[in-house]
């Protein structure tokens, strides 16, 4: 993967999620878009961009896939930290791990809509002896 790389959506390109604009349901927006909360990113910046599910997608699911990451070992453990905003209306956010030898992804973390509407952060640690996507 990208060691210590930060990934945002300011340039409309996030190297880890290079295909996000091909995935139906995801829109790139900021807090000034007039769509509703959140009205800023996790740093409180109103003009900073983040990805959001479009309102038409409320009843179904949309996927984001990373690039292919190289295998981890004792020296190179992969940690991914991401910021998320989940409301009671927006269902469940699931992180899956798909290894090269497997046909489907395995769910490794999930969170469902919560009462407090605020940005939260989570870090997942991934150990994989083969190439994988998240």
From TrEMBL:
Kindly state one GO CC term assigned in the UniProt record: membrane
| SUPFAM superfamilies (UniProt xref) | Concanavalin A-like lectins/glucanases
Superkingdom, natural source: Eukaryota
Domain MAM positions? 5-134
Q: Which InterPro entries does this entry report, sorted A to Z? A: ConA-like_dom_sf, MAM_dom
Q: Which residues form the signal peptide?
A: none
Checking SMART domains in the record gives: MAM
Q: Which PROSITE patterns match?
A: MAM_2 (PS50060)
Question: Under what name is this protein listed?
Answer: MALR1 protein
* Underlying gene: Malrd1_4
């Amino acid at each position: 993967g990208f060691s210590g790389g930060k990934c945002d959506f300011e340039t409309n390109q996030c190297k880890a999620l290079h295909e996000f604009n091909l995935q139906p349901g995801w829109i790139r927006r900021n807090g000034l878009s007039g769509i509703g909360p959140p009205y800023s990113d996790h740093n409180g910046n109103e003009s900073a961009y983040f990805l959001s599910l479009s309102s038409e997608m409320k009843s179904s699911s949309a996927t984001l896939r990373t690039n292919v990451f190289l295998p981890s070992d004792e020296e190179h453990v992969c940690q991914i930290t991401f910021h998320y905003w989940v409301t009671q209306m927006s269902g469940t956010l699931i992180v899956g791990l798909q290894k090269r030898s497997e046909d489907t992804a395995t769910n490794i973390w999930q969170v469902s809509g919560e009462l407090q509407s605020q940005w939260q952060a989570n870090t997942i640690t991934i150990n994989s002896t083969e190439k994988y996507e998240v």
